[in-house]
Amino acid sequence: MRSTHPLVAHDTASSRLVRALRGERQEATPVWFMRQAGRSLPEYRALRATGGDMLDACLDPAMASEITMQPVRRHGVDAAVFFSDIVVPLKLVGLDVEIVAGRGPVFAEPVRTAEQIARLVAIDPALVTERGEAVAEAVRQTTAMLAEESERRGEPLPLIGFAGAPFTLAAYLVEGGPSKDHLGARSLLHADPAAWHDLTHWLAEVTGRFLALQVEAGASAGQLFDSWAGAVAPADYRRAVLPSSAAALGPVRALGLDVPLIHFGVGTGEILADMASIGVDALGVDYRVPLDVARARIDLDLTLQGNLDPALLFAPADVRAAAVHDVLTAGLAARAHVFNLGHGVPMDTDPQVLTDLVRTVHDWRAS
């Protein structure tokens, strides 16, 4: 381990989050939220109103680091998650993509045929690293700010890096944007398995380099998001999706920094054991499967992360508190637990609810 990496230099290896991800149950359960940085915070909206689109913000180190820090200061969460987007590495390699408000990532040219895929995969994934200095600088600035916040709070605060899994990226690329059923990607994996293999394994290298860029620059943990993996039948997932997800973690492992890794997907109750099988430290579970049930399904000694239904952020406080306690109790079935939502923070969430939720989690103790 490099002495300059925050795991050593800022002692984030002893943080609640990193210790829990590595299997050490904490007296106070660590908590962070997917999409904790962003649209639910008035300070985010005020900063973004200064100009530029979403991807410009992701590639502006000062803005990205400040946005990353906003929920840490406001909510008292146990980690920051890097403010970026899963399509940033595709922009870095030269694809014409934008984040359309109210819709999501939209590509100027969908990639649907073997010929289009052949042209795409000829692009060198190393461009992510070569053109990614703004990402690395944003991570460096964020970890420096986290070190200052750690001094104030009296406990180390790590940064979580993230990247999109190849299937989810492929789903956007094939459709040209968001889709309700991801039929284009599901059709391609059957219609042309060779082209599908080339596409997803190229995406594994691209997104894997993006995650490795964050880890090398200072992230103390990493999460692979497969938002749409639940759209695929289990047999198809094992055959045509899981191998590229495993490959996406290769560039991080090649760094030799031993950062804990999390694998998360949505609607993945039938494939939890498969998702857990690629050598990760923790499995993120969405809100559809209780954590004790998930533990029985995976039958592996992993940390579990999750999994409050985001809809409960809009429930009465007593209903929400009871649900939080249920999640924490179910999490006792695993070797360790990191509290999170079962998906991202909705944009119209009251920030005070999240702040109160963090306090509820930290105050809870197993009886």
Task: Tell me about this structure.
- It is a single chain.
- With 367 residues, the protein is α/β, with parallel strands linked by helices.
- It has a single domain (6-284), classed as TIM Barrel, CATH 3.20.20.210.
- The chain has 19 helices and 9 strands.
- It has a 7-stranded parallel sheet. It has a two-stranded antiparallel ribbon with strand order 2-3.
- Helix 10 (166-175) packs across helix 12.
- The longest helix is centred in the middle third of the chain and has 25 residues, at 193-217.
- The radius of gyration is 19 Å and the shape is globular.
- It starts with 5 loop residues before the first helix and ends with a helix.
- The model has no long low-confidence stretch (mean pLDDT 96).
Order of helices and strands: HHHHHEHEEHHHEHHHEHHHEHEHEHEH
What's the tally of helices? Answer: 19
Distance between the termini: 38 Å
Radius of gyration: 19 Å
Overall pLDDT level: 96
Q: In the residues, how many domains can be counted? A: 1
CATH class identity: Alpha Beta
List keywords for this structure.
single chain, 367 residues, alpha/beta, TIM Barrel, seven-stranded parallel beta sheet, two-stranded antiparallel ribbon, 19 helices, 48% helix
What is the element layout, followed by pairings?
Layout: H1 6-9, H2 16-21, H3 42-48, H4 54-58, H5 61-75, E1 80-81, H6 88-92, E2 97-100, E3 104-107, H7 114-121, H8 127-130, H9 133-153, E4 159-164, H10 166-175, H11 183-191, H12 193-217, E5 221-226, H13 234-240, H14 242-248, H15 250-253, E6 261-265, H16 272-276, E7 282-284, H17 291-298, E8 303-308, H18 317-330, E9 337-341, H19 351-363
Parallel strand pairs: 1-4, 4-5, 5-6, 6-7, 7-8, 8-9
Antiparallel strand pairs: 2-3
Helix pairs in contact: 5-9, 7-12, 9-12, 10-11, 10-12, 11-12, 12-14, 18-19
